[in-house]
Design goal:
Distance between the termini of chain A: 30 Å
Distance between the termini of chain B: 18 Å
Order of helices and strands of chain A: HHHHHHHHHHHH
Oligomer: heterodimer
Order of helices and strands of chain B: EHEEEEHEEHEH
Strand content of chain B: 25-35%
Shape of chain A: globular
CATH class of chain B: Alpha Beta
Structural class of chain B: alpha/beta
Largest sheet of chain B: 6 strands, mixed
Number of strands of chain A: 0
CATH architecture of chain B: 3-Layer(aba) Sandwich
Strand content of chain A: under 5%
CATH superfamily of chain B: P-loop containing nucleotide triphosphate hydrolases
Low-confidence stretches of chain A: 7-53
Number of strands of chain B: 8
Mean pLDDT of chain B: 87
Chain lengths: 226, 184
């Protein structure tokens, strides 16, 4: 297993920069000290606090394969999007973030049960929960290998989409189609580019700057995938 | 003698005209509604007969970017933390104001010891019946956080836009003067 050179560069940059710019070193892992194998890095073993890593992989209970045992798309996602389409359009869908105090108990129940009652929640809260769900998945929707393929060529998106394995492929296409629908409605003031910016760090396993442009492309062409 | 570029980083909640402030500084159209990934403005000005080059760095402040945002903090000389001067919900939540204490300052202090300016945005809303944030709360916040300065600005009416940048540069230049004096 090999890490992408961009990711290694980022880790090196951070570990060096912490010595230059800060009097107290940042609590990040240091490549030279730890002498790690690439597998350890991938599993997130080095850092006690997984949120420090740029990679999304982490040990949470939200497992897409288990959640999609009986149906193609998790019940939570289906419910959330059906509620969102029924509500009156607001400016900045998926962009505004609600206060943390309100969200934390909801996030906990979502993580343990995999589903949640949402009829009484505000639009912002539901949007934030959807993003949280994708962020906390055991395996993110777009894995490192797939993201490399997407970065390579803009024209072969349909082909690369066919390589993806199944619960992830169907879920990604479902999400892209939903976002495409929302981007057609001008009342939301969110086009494909804006959705790309907001969703990119939630979907890519290893996020690099510029990935939001890939997502923008995918959302615009959502209807060409099957 | 050419000086090192001074980096001023802007943080703060979403939808409080933080990027609007920077676009107004460039005298651009402020009507666009685009979430920021990475935007920066570079420029030069003279302060005390000294040529100073600066870089105004805007950061992605969505919750989605929580894991990545600290990359933008590297090398920052001074932070500008923004909040909205009124509570538009009128429910007493004061989300953007409370987040300065609860979210932004701890996050900055984890990565850097640079000085901080607190900036109230959208001052034009002070004349509306929306719930205002009391002066005592603000002074308390400035004292607790150890901020260098508190300024109110309005990007719609072009009020105090240049002042914020100039004050930030002044603070950095004074700090550097002190350091060199102590060194001698």
């Amino acid at each position: 297993m090999e890490l992408s050179p961009d990711y290694l560069m980022k880790i090196k940059m951070r570990s060096n920069a912490s010595f230059i710019h800060n009097k107290e070193p940042i609590k990040l892992f240091n490549l030279n000290q730890a002498q790690t194998t690439s597998q350890d890095l991938k599993l997130g073993k080095l850092s006690n606090n997984t949120s420090d890593c740029i990679g999304l992989k982490q040990s949470t209970k939200l497992d897409l394969i288990a959640l999609t045992a009986t149906q193609e798309i998790p019940q939570f996602i289906m419910n959330a999007f059906s509620i969102l389409t029924l509500r009156t359009p607001q400016e900045g869908l998926f962009r505004m973030s609600p206060s943390d105090e309100l969200q934390k108990p909801l996030q906990k129940t979502l993580e343990t049960n995999g589903n949640l009652e949402m009829q009484n929640l505000e639009v912002d809260q539901i949007c934030s929960l959807i993003k949280y769900f994708y962020r906390k998945l055991n395996n993110p929707l777009i894995s490192e290998k797939m993201s490399i393929l997407f970065r390579k060529s803009a024209e072969e998106d349909v082909k690369t989409m066919q390589i993806m394995t199944d619960p992830y492929r169907t879920n990604l296409i479902y999400l892209l189609k939903q976002l495409n629908n929302f981007s057609q409605n001008l009342l939301y003031k969110m086009d494909a580019k804006n959705f790309g910016v907001v969703f990119a760090p939630n979907l890519f396993e290893l996020y690099n700057l510029g990935d939001e442009k890939i997502l923008k492309r995918l959302i615009e062409n959502a209807n060409s995938f099957e | 003698m050419k000086q090192k570029q001074i980096k001023i980083t802007f943080v703060g909640d979403n939808n409080i005209q933080r990027s609007g402030f920077l676009r107004q500084f460039l005298k651009q159209n402020n009507d666009c509604f685009i979430p920021v990934v990475e935007e920066y403005i570079e420029g030069e000005c003279t302060i005390n007969n000294q040529l100073v080059s600066y870089r105004l760095q805007d950061t992605p402040c969505n919750e989605d970017y929580d894991r990545i945002r600290h990359l933008y903090y590297l090398g920052t000389d001074i932070f500008v933390v923004c909040y909205q001067v009124v509570d538009l919900t009128n429910a007493g939540i004061k989300q953007s104001f409370n987040n300065v204490r609860a979210k932004w300052i701890p996050e900055i202090r984890q990565h850097s010891n640079a000085p901080i300016i607190i900036l109230g945005t959208e001052a034009e809303l002070l004349h509306t019946p929306a719930l205002q944030i009391q002066d005592e709360e603000i002074t308390q916040l400035v004292r607790d956080v150890g901020a260098q300065m508190h300024i109110i600005s309005s990007s719609k009416h072009k009020y105090n836009i240049q002042l914020v940048i100039h004050q930030a540069l002044h603070i950095i230049l004074k700090q550097k003067e002190k350091e060199t004096r102590n060194y001698k």
